[in-house]
């Protein structure tokens, strides 16, 4: 045998080991993930190879080293089972090849020990890691549970502490859980709630739609809905709740619970109602206010379709003389009066009639579905009757009157604003016709009234632009039809509408105060023209009669103004006559009378216009500083026709003439249109006449021409001696309502 | 009732977890039968998978060593999974002696395990947070206590973004991290891709649909889009084993079979 000496085995030579390690690395590469670079791996295996070679070649061999090698393989994370397989095969193959068959028993023993060491270590590692990961799972679960508990606790606190009521019910409507806010809201305990169903929380006022929504939610067609509805508390009190009901579904999407969130909005609701009430009611009278009225009226129109047969009406009412009461007796009494009027109006209104206060002393009654003007007229009569008894206020009895504009129309014929405009105009008409009465809207009159309204706005500018001129209508002596005087009549040369009669603008001018400058201008013109006639005709010149409005009489400077004017123009005072309406004279205020006294002291004559149309207080007439009364044309109407005359009119005129004469007044008849009328008036003793029979209103130049001719005016006849008593007028002509500032012959 | 969003998710070990499946691929034993079943089915279909996972882990090792060589000694490993073998702190500490590492994962079990494992190491920390919520990661007190964002940091998103669908805008999220990174910082990214093995992709995606983290494979171009804004370190975007191999001379057969993209980018 030429074998190497079997003394102590030589240290394994390095190259052989390197090769073995490289081979080993190649075999196990990829069988497990080992966090090493290739060279590091080889280094690691080289160390193990050294151990293995040393162990199998030792005397005696030390196969137990295999267990350590197996342990270190697992420690390096060679955990893949094929690592062991490949390692065992490699060692069993390569070691005998390198070191001779005599190492085979040692190799067997060593690889066996290696497998056992590997398995034991891997088993330990497996158990360790499994334990570690299970512990991690436990920790994570614990953590999760804690988080869940924490969040549950949070949510329970939220549920408990929420100011909003929260309740959970099942799909049968049984109430499963409620929070304290809910129990407080209802006054039920949680136990009492659990005996209730959702359906028992219904309120008779609930809209059917609410419960339809609920049904849909239960069927799963809706996921939630919100509604504001009433609920009964345990004690029967009603609360208003803002309810949000939500459907809770299970994992498969099936409806499983209903969740209610309820906020008690009773307070807010009350406040809202209060605010709404305030917004729509007049605090003084508690009647509806303008906003409420307008809304209701507009709703009538909005609800009516294009083919609606619906009719609507309003009584638009304004107290007569309210301002005077307010000014003289104080706002307190004024307020009491408004309250009492409101109460009486409220008592007049029936079903479908809304009474509103729309302004200071303006009220309106809206009649929805009026079905004809009769109902409105009936209502207007009732209202006037209700206001007729004097009001006992602050210890005194006060009379209150009202004027009412009545409009009743088909909804399709008008609009809300047109209706109100018509009501406004009609009210104005009613007032103009003499207060304390109603007037029914007349569409044909509407146009004129509209013009009047627009004119009113244009008046101040018209005065500034001097758009007015003056005509004169002669006043003749009835005995010889010769001109004694002329009445100055103002006209408006409107730039677009042409010449306008005073009937259209005097009223508005008085209301707006424009009458003062306008009257002053007319007075001045009239005085100049009269001065010119006086200069030409001397004592034959006519006096000029100028209308003075009540408003002018209140101007403190009137007397001085007239004096200055007469002085300036040189017109003798006795050539000037001032005409006033009866109403202006019968006020109990002192200023106008003082002014009249002043004018009269100057020598100016005073005439009462439209005598007999107003509140004729004959005893007053006696004390008044008056020279002339002018009988309203309406009294003479019954005397116009020769064959058909009115005996009553004749007697009245006769009486008035006698009265005038008894008071030493000149009596002038207005509206004289026929020769027969003139003759009758003369017979009755009337001094002067004015009217179409004699002359229309003429420009100043025409008056001069007429004076130069010096002829009597109009046919001068004797009155018919035969007056067949049986042929009396079938009907007395209706008295015309409305202001008649001049009108005659204009 | 469905679990409301405020309630924590239950821990269900019967459901495979991406983190534990990955651990299994790497020879780890921190996994349950559901994880192993899934891995077994995946491997039956795609036998190279364990090698791909190993290649991915090896890329992580090489990339961390590269960063350490650049002087980076603090790391944020997002989607770190089960700390098993070859963890970032081990690699970095082996290279530098000292390094601070924060592990971030969304899997509560992975996090619990990591905490247990690293409890005694004050240079490491574990944060349970969602990558797509950068502030929850960056502003976590643990992160703040270990990482100084005024200095270069290594941010690792290794084998993570294929679990983030496009609807969660991973590119925009990465940009948020980039903004937090000081110049000189590096991003390490690997991403599953079907580019090299399209025949396996669908099956694989189907398997991951059973996990809490379904998969979105992305192409090379899409990965390039994700790392836009970083300066790519040589060799750019490559298959896993091709990124700076330990032995550049060693022959590499069919690198495309290791179907995953690897890239390291620097924040300039």
From TrEMBL, chain A:
Pfam families named in the record: EAL (PF00563), GGDEF (PF00990), PAS_3 (PF08447)
Give the region (Disordered) as residue ranges: 714-746
Residues spanning the signal sequence: none
- What are the residue boundaries of the PAC domain, all occurrences included? 225-277
CDD domains xref list: EAL (cd01948), GGDEF (cd01949), PAS (cd00130)
Domain EAL: residue ranges:
452-711
Q: Which residues form the GGDEF domain?
A: 310-443
InterPro entries the UniProt entry points to: Biofilm_reg_signaling (IPR052155), EAL_dom (IPR001633), EAL_sf (IPR035919), GGDEF_dom (IPR000160), Nucleotide_cyclase (IPR029787), PAC (IPR001610), PAS (IPR000014), PAS-assoc_C (IPR000700)
Q: Where is the PAS domain?
A: 151-221
NCBIfam families attached here? GGDEF (TIGR00254), sensory_box (TIGR00229)
Name by which UniProt lists this protein: Bifunctional diguanylate cyclase/phosphodiesterase
Its source organism is: Actinomycetospora chibensis
Automatic annotation (TrEMBL), chain B:
The UniProt entry, under Pfam families, shows:
Methyltransf_19 (PF04672)
Report the SUPFAM superfamilies cross-referenced here: S-adenosyl-L-methionine-dependent methyltransferases
Which biological process annotations from GO are given for this protein?
A: methylation
Q: Where is this region: Disordered?
A: 248-268
Q: What is this protein called?
A: SAM-dependent methyltransferase
MF term (GO), any = methyltransferase activity
Q: What is its EC number?
A: 2.1.1.-
Which organism does this sequence originate in?
Actinomycetospora chibensis
What residue spans carry the Basic and acidic residues bias annotation? 254-268
Keyword list, A-Z: Methyltransferase, Transferase
């Amino acid at each position: 045998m030429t074998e190497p000496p079997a003394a102590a085995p030589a240290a394994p030579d390095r190259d052989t080991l390197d090769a073995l390690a490289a081979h080993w690395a190649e075999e196990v590469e990829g069988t497990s993930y080992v966090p090493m670079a290739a060279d590091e791996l080889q280094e690691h295996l080289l160390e193990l190879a050294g151990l293995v070679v040393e162990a199998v070649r030792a005397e005696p061999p030390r196969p137990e080293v295999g267990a350590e090698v197996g342990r270190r393989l697992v420690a390096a994370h060679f955990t893949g089972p094929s690592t062991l397989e490949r390692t065992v095969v490699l060692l069993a193959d390569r070691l005998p090849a390198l070191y001779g068959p005599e190492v085979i028993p040692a190799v067997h023993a060593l690889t066996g020990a290696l497998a056992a060491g590997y398995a034991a270590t891997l088993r330990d590692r497996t158990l360790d890691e499994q334990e570690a990961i299970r512990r991690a799972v436990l920790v994570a679960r614990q953590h999760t549970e804690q988080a869940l508990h924490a969040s549950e606790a949070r949510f329970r606190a939220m549920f408990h502490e929420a100011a909003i009521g929260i309740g959970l019910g099942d799909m049968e409507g049984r109430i499963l859980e409620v929070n304290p806010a809910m129990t407080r809201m209802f006054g039920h305990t949680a136990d009492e709630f659990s005996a209730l169903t959702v359906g028992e929380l219904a309120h008779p006022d609930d809209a059917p739609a609410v419960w339809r929504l609920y049904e849909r939610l239960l069927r799963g067609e809706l996921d939630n809905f919100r509604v504001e509805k009433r609920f009964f508390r345990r004690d029967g009190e009603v609360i208003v709740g803002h309810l949000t009901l939500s459907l809770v579904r299970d994992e498969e999407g099936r409806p499983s619970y209903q969740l209610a969130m309820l906020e008690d909005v009773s307070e807010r609701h009350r406040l809202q109602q209060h605010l709404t009430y305030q917004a729509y009611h007049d605090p003084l009278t508690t009647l509806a206010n303008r906003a409420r009225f307008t809304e209701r009226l507009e709703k009538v129109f909005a609800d009516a379709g294009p083919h609606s047969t619906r009719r609507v009406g309003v009584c638009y009412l304004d107290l007569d003389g309210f301002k005077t009461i307010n000014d003289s007796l104080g706002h307190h009494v004024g307020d009491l009066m408004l309250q009492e009027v409101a109460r009486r109006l409220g008592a007049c209104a029936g079903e479908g009639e809304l009474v509103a206060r729309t302004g200071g002393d303006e009220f309106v009654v809206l009649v929805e579905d009026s079905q004809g003007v009769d109902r409105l007229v009936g209502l207007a009569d009732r209202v006037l009757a209700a206001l007729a008894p004097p009001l006992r206020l602050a210890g005194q009895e006060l009379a209150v009157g009202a004027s009412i504009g009545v409009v009743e129309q088909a909804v399709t014929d008008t609009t809300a604003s047109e209706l109100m405009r018509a009501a406004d105009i009609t009210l104005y008409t009613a007032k103009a016709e003499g207060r304390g009465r109603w007037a029914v809207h007349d569409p044909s009159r509407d146009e004129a009234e509209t013009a009047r309204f627009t004119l009113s706005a244009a008046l101040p500018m018209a005065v500034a632009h001097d758009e007015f001129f003056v005509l004169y209508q002669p006043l003749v002596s009835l005995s010889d039809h010769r001109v004694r005087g002329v009445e100055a009549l103002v006209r408006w040369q409107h730039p677009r509408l042409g010449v306008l009669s005073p009937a259209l603008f005097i009223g508005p001018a008085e209301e707006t105060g424009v009458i003062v400058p306008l009257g002053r201008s007319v007075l001045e013109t009239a005085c100049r023209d009269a001065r010119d006639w006086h200069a030409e005709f001397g004592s034959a010149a006519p006096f000029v009669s100028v209308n003075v409005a009540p408003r002018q009489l209140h101007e403190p400077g009137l007397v001085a103004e007239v004096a200055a004017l007469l002085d300036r123009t040189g017109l003798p005072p006795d050539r000037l006559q001032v005409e006033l309406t009866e109403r202006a004279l019968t006020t109990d205020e002192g200023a106008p009378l003082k002014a009249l006294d002043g004018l009269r002291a100057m020598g100016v004559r005073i005439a009462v216009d439209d005598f007999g149309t107003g509140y004729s207080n004959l005893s007053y007439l006696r004390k008044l500083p008056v020279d002339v009364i002018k009988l309203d044309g309406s009294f003479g109407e019954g005397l116009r026709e020769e064959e058909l005359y009115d005996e009553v009119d004749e007697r009245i005129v006769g009486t008035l003439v006698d009265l005038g004469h008894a008071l030493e007044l000149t009596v002038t008849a207005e509206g004289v249109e026929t020769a027969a009328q003139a003759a009758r008036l003369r017979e009755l003793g009337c001094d002067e006449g004015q009217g179409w029979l004699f002359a229309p209103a003429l420009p100043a130049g025409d008056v001069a021409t007429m004076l130069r001719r010096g002829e009597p005016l109009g046919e001068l006849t004797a009155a018919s001696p035969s007056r067949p008593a049986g042929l009396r007028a079938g009907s007395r002509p209706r008295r015309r309502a409305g202001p008649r500032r001049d009108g005659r012959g204009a | 009732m469905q679990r409301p969003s405020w309630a924590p998710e239950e821990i269900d070990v019967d459901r495979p977890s991406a983190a534990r499946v990955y651990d299994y691929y790497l020879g780890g034993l921190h996994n349950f039968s559901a994880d192993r079943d899934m891995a077994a089915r995946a491997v039956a279909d795609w036998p190279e998978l364990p090698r791909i996972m190993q290649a991915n882990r090896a890329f992580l090792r090489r990339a961390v060593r590269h960063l350490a060589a650049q002087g980076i000694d603090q790391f944020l490993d997002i989607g770190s999974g089960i700390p098993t073998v070859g963890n970032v702190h081990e690699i970095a500490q082996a290279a530098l002696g000292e390094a601070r590492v924060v592990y971030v994962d969304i899997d509560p079990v992975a996090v619990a395990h990591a905490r247990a494992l690293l409890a005694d190491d004050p240079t490491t920390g574990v944060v349970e947070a969602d990558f797509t919520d950068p502030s929850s990661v960056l502003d976590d007190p643990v992160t703040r206590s270990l990482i100084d964002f005024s200095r270069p940091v290594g941010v690792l998103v290794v084998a993570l973004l294929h679990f983030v669908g496009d609807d969660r805008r991973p590119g925009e999220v990465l940009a948020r991290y980039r903004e937090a990174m000081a110049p000189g910082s590096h991003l390490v990214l690997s991403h599953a891709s079907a580019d090299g093995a399209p025949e396996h992709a669908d099956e694989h995606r189907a398997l991951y649909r059973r996990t809490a983290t379904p998969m979105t494979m992305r192409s090379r171009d899409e990965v390039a889009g994700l790392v836009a804004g970083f300066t790519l370190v040589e060799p750019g975007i490559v298959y896993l084993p091709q990124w700076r191999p330990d032995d550049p001379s060693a022959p590499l057969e069919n690198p495309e079979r290791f179907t995953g993209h690897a890239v390291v980018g620097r924040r300039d």
